[in-house]
Amino acid sequence: MLAASCCDRRMCVCPGPRRIAIPVRSSRLPLLSDAMPAPAHLFPLIRNCEISRIGSTACYCHHRHLCCLPSHFAHSHFRYAPQKKFAALYRPKENFNHFIHTRDHASASQRFYLTPPQVNSILKANEYSFKVPEFDGKNVSSVLGFDSNQLPANAPIEDRRSAATCLQTRGMLLGVFDGHAGCACAQAVSERLFYYIAVSLLPHETLLEIENAVESGRALLPILQWHKHPNDYFSKEASKLYFNSLRTYWQELIDLNSGETTDVREALINAFKRLDNDISLEAQVGDPNSFLNYLVLRVAFSGATACVAHVDGVDLHIANTGDSRAMLGVQEEDGSWSAVNLSYDHNAQNEHEVERVKTEHPKSEEKTLVKQDRLLGLLMPFRAFGDVKFKWSIELQKRVIESGPDQLNDNEYTKFIPPNYHTPPYLTAEPEVIYHKLRPQDKFLVLATDGLWETMHRQDVARIVGEYLTGVHHQQPIAVGGYKVTLGQMHGLLTERRARISSVFEDQNAATHLIRHAVGNNEFGTVDHERLSKMLSLPEELARMYRDDITIIVVQFNSHVIGACQNEEL
Amino acid sequence: MFLRVLSDIQWRAANPKWRRMTSSRRSTSTTAEPHPVSLPAQAQVVICGGGITGTSVAYHLSKMGWKDIVLLEQGRLAAGTTRFCAGIVSTARPVSIELKMAHYSNKLYQQLEQETGVPTGYTKTGSLSLAQTQDRLISLKRIASSLSVMGIPCEIITPKQAVQLHPLINIHDLVGAMYVPEDALVTSANVSLALATAASRNGVQIHERTSVSHVTVQKGRVTGVETDRGRIQCQYFVNCAGQWAYELGHSGEVPVHIPLHACEHFYLLTHPLAEPLSSSLPTVVDPDGRIYIRNWQGGILSGGFEKNPKPLFTEGRNQLEIQNLQEDWDHFGPLLSALLRRMPGLEALQILQLVNCPESFTPDMRCIMGESPTARGYFVLAGMNSAGISYGGGAGKYLAEWMVNGYPSDNVWPLDLKRFGTLQSSRTFLRHRVMEVMPLMCDLKVPRWDFQTGRQLRTSPLYDRLDAQGARWMEKHGFERVKYFVPPGKDLLDLDHSKTFYKPDWFDIVGAEVKCCKEAVCVIDMSSFTKFEISSTGDEALENLQYLFSNDLDVPVGHVVHTGMLNEKGGYENDCSIARLSKRSFFMISPTDQQVHCWAWLKNRLPDDSNLTLEDVTWKYTALNLIGPRAVDVLSELSYAPMTAEHFPSLFCKEMSVGYANGIRVMSITHTGEPGFVLYIPIEYALHVYNEVMNMGQKYGIRNAGYYALRSLRIEKFFAFWGQDLDAFTTPMECGREFQVKLEKGMDFVGQEALLEQKQNGVYKRFTMFILEDHDTDMDLWPWWGEPIFRNGRYVGKTTSSAYSYTLERHVCLGFVHNFDEKTGEELVVTTDFINQGEYEIDIAGQRFQAKAKLYPFSSLFTQRRRKDEVELSGYQTE
């Protein structure tokens, strides 16, 4: 049986309804009715799948990606029907708004609301802000600082975020990581990826210096200065293991010394690939420590997308693997805001991506490669860290699972082999790198997991963040002109506009502000407290149906520095 | 813009004559036309600005017989703020001189149409000021009291009566209102044009589209004006440039600092109501809602003074863009809410326009008039704080009198340009201050409020020390002064926000400070006082001072003399203490706000003699006032010198050492009538001396005290303060200070003739002290100043200051008693008997309290032996 430790939970809870759809043996099904009252972590896998199934059959799930479920899942969802609490929520989306707005439809048990302070405390629980310190009253960095925040939908959250300043080279690294099938992989990537990138960027001499320091047991040069929220943890147990892998990497880099200056694009690509490779290797090799052994397996069998920004002066590199997104907020000359995409989603909606996958596999597989907008009919992102189920050969998978710990053996998901699995690997962690040279009108960068992008259009994101950061709510001024307006009408209009503006001032953090909009926006594009309260008070098991984990980093640029850099070049 | 077109039409219809005279043709085209009439090469007076103030000055000057006047306007007449102004003439003003100006303006405008033939749109509608709170009602009652004694009809009415006067008002949240039936509405641009018409008939030349680039000044006198159309030589220049006045003042080589700053001001115009509003409906002012509402062409015009004003033109550029300012509905929102709350019936009324009309505001909410302290002949009238129409007529009259007669017919010190110095001219200061001033237009004006912005500009070196000991601060002329010290453990927040017309919560704190002054010794930092040094190589200093000051300054070295600096009419231009430091040098101490005025007065009258030097040493000395019977002990211990009355009599000055610091100027005066000393300490020694005094004083029970204690002490002893009780219209004879005048000092002095005449004929007003008899300190409204005094039921004057006397346990008010003839209202001589044989009452916000009048202070309050000349006068004392 599953151990009830929190690590197990993290591992097991979550195929999640959207990123991966997992078949579940029907023999488990009779347990369902009994399972619900039982502690949630006992049958989390089944429960999640079940709910997602209901979500997709009994109602339209408002997310873009639906779970596609094999047809043999024909068991009854009516078992849930008597539970009024849920029944009310299982309305289609169109009615959902309606339901939230008109209380008479809600059953008595739904009629509690979070007060604004409660809402704020939920929204602000994970917020973090970093301001680049000024020296001599001058901030010479092109980054003013960043705001980040995340709002869980999964319990526990599967998103991760990282931010760090490179100490041995210039620049700042920021990233969001969206885990699936558990958060283990996202956690590992969030801890390790920046070290890989930083090491890839280091000049030969510095690498040597570091290696010598390690060799002689001297103090190591610090490579990264992390900017972490207290909730952003690093696993102590694995640090030795991770460090050794990293050290092997830089030793190879030292040996390979090409003498050429480090190209950021290449460094990013190498780091991504190397880390994924290390994750895979560590799982194959295993670890004598049973806890670590289990950990590396969980990391490898779960997956994570990554969207990482490297900012150094006017040079902005975005390395993206998967379907998180980077977006640049640009202020036009007239003060309005527009959005520039700095990443492409790696999923079925991206034709180039579909094309790429198809060219990498024999023509015979063309029809099975992408089904229901998923890789092999299962996985939504087309690139990811971990997910060895889509990378290893069947033999390797079986061997590792059999030699692995019992917990792994008992896990339905890990044992399951994707259908039509003929020519692995089907999945890569290689990022797509986009370079952008910052201009003074580029005011901010938003990195966010798909939880944000599926609820908000990037244009709205640009506007909301832009207005928040400039402190100006760029509403068109009202002019009466020749229209017939009465005092009463004008009064009503002004009152409404004031309410809209006041929502800006509740947040001290741009990311929080964005989340507030993402979750609470009504059809008019303004934050509706009632809706916000409803969305945030959804029970853990249901939250995932209405929203995904959201993780946002908003990086604010220093236009003066950027402008000055430009002038220097001219 | 609508309004503009409207008045243009009326202008053309009404003024064909004037047009011919000036040949300045108007046309609707916007291109500049050639000027057929060239500018004169010289004139006696050049007025810059063709708004309400400029035309009013021209009108009054020409009426008073000055003919050689040129008025220049950069655009067209009445094209600035005047054109946009809401046109409300309201006399309900808290400051007495402003009230008089508004009253005069009202009377002037009323007959202006008849006089000039220009329709001014004058309609007597009356005004309703509403009170949503009891405190507001009290402040209205105070205004009502001063209006009634001036003979201006006015009544405090109930909400129900208010709704009868104006049926649209929602009265559910009102506690009362004030009705002033004679307040009026005018078309402001037309009033200005009417004044211009009358002035031009009297010979004033008016030139439009002529802008003044700068004013030339030579040897401290105005010599001419440079314009874009050439130069005009002139003796007098009048800056009536409204919000452009600041920049114009700074354009010349000798800058004239006119501290004002523009703020956007919005008002709303609507279409007519379904049943158009009657043009006789009173104007409604709802200060708690921050709005005013007047009828306008069957609809309404409503504006207000928001809490978050938008200052503009801080950089001073683009001021010509006044016509193109944007409407800002979001900004107007709160005022619109207040309007609909006051008149809910207007919801369906259609909007015509939101007008953005910038107004200029000054650092203390009062307008600016008078002569520049740096350039003689340079006069200013500007900064009307959005009441240009109400004040314009009266202010123009006063300024014209000032120019023609040398001084206006009333005390305009509260409006005098010289109350400001260069320090108020910082753009940052002005920008921040006007953001506080504009909301104050509607805020409740309670006694003893202080500005919060533009603070901590001038401070004593002891500021931090005192602040750490609980000092609460007020500001005078930019200088931070201590009000009182909050003892440790008291709730500070509460104290800072006490806004009340009743007993304030610092009552006991100040009481303790007063007690300490009486029984032990207190230290008050009085560094803000203005300090001048006058010295000469020969006897010039003495000779000139003897001429300029009324008391005899030819005293032995080391003596201190209290003396007035009088004008020709014997009135106090300044009241100061002068110490004779040596045969040829004098040290002069004046009130804080005299820094600019007194300097200019002396500079203008002292001969241009290189042997004579006048120096402002205010910043060089920190002044510590040691008040109390034990001050003697503290000082003698610190200086090892005997300080008793035998060795150091009253009104004496000596340089001595205090602690380690040498050269401290010690004077045996306290400005309160209590025994004690003022120490003038070179600033680098200030902290040392303060620490020594505090350490040594411990065993004598020394403590810090503030100005509130000082005020209570001086008022209970009938000490008049210049600026508060004394002004340019008060002579020493009228305030029982004959002893400070030496009529026979062997030489003439300024004001001597007037004083001799008064001595012979008697005085027409008399400074009197009133002890409130049936006033309950805890329950009743406190007197402030400006309360009417009634003698045998008839109005005889107003109070000028008041304080609670902790010794007498009574309120003491100081004020002037006149003797108005019962029938004619003519002023008669006030005799001692007249004062003594009356039953007095003081009117505080409509409630009258019995008061006992006294011409001399209680001798029991003085513990100190005074010098012979003072003792002579104590013979009158009855108690």
TrEMBL record, chain A:
Domain of life of the organism encoding this protein: Eukaryota
Keyword Acetylation in annotation: yes
Main location: mitochondrion
Coiled-coil region(s): none
Gene3D superfamilies: PPM-type phosphatase domain (3.60.40.10)
Catalytic activity reported: O-phospho-L-seryl-[pyruvate dehydrogenase E1 alpha subunit] + H2O = L-seryl-[pyruvate dehydrogenase E1 alpha subunit] + phosphate
Cofactor dependence: Mn(2+); Mg(2+)
Subcellular location: Mitochondrion
Gene Ontology, cellular component aspect: mitochondrion
EC number from the UniProt entry: 3.1.3.43
One Gene Ontology term of the molecular function aspect: [pyruvate dehydrogenase (acetyl-transferring)]-phosphatase activity
Function summary: Mitochondrial enzyme that catalyzes the dephosphorylation and concomitant reactivation of the alpha subunit of the E1 component of the pyruvate dehydrogenase complex (PDC), thereby stimulating the conversion of pyruvate into acetyl-CoA.
Origin species: Lepidothrix coronata
Keyword Hydrolase: yes
Gene name for this UniProt entry: PDP1
Record protein name field: [Pyruvate dehydrogenase [acetyl-transferring]]-phosphatase 1, mitochondrial
Keywords, ordered alphabetically: Acetylation, Calcium, Hydrolase, Magnesium, Metal-binding, Mitochondrion, Protein phosphatase, Pyruvate, Transit peptide
Family, similarity comment: Belongs to the PP2C family.
Automatic annotation (TrEMBL), chain B:
Subcellular location, record wording: Mitochondrion matrix
Oligomer and partners: Heterodimer of a catalytic (PDP1) and a regulatory (PDPR) subunit.
Family recorded in the similarity comment: Belongs to the GcvT family.
Gene Ontology cellular component annotations, sorted alphabetically: mitochondrial matrix
Gene: PDPR
Domain Rhodanese: 45-88
UniProt function note: Decreases the sensitivity of PDP1 to magnesium ions, and this inhibition is reversed by the polyamine spermine.
Record keywords, A-Z: Mitochondrion, Pyruvate, Transit peptide
Protein name per the record: Pyruvate dehydrogenase phosphatase regulatory subunit, mitochondrial
Pfam families: DAO, FAO_M, GCV_T, GCV_T_C
InterPro entries linked to this entry: FAD-dep_OxRdtase, FAD/NAD-bd_sf, FAO_M, GcvT/YgfZ/DmdA, GcvT/YgfZ_C, GcvT_C, GCVT_N, Rhodanese-like_dom
Species, as recorded: Lepidothrix coronata (blue-crowned manakin)
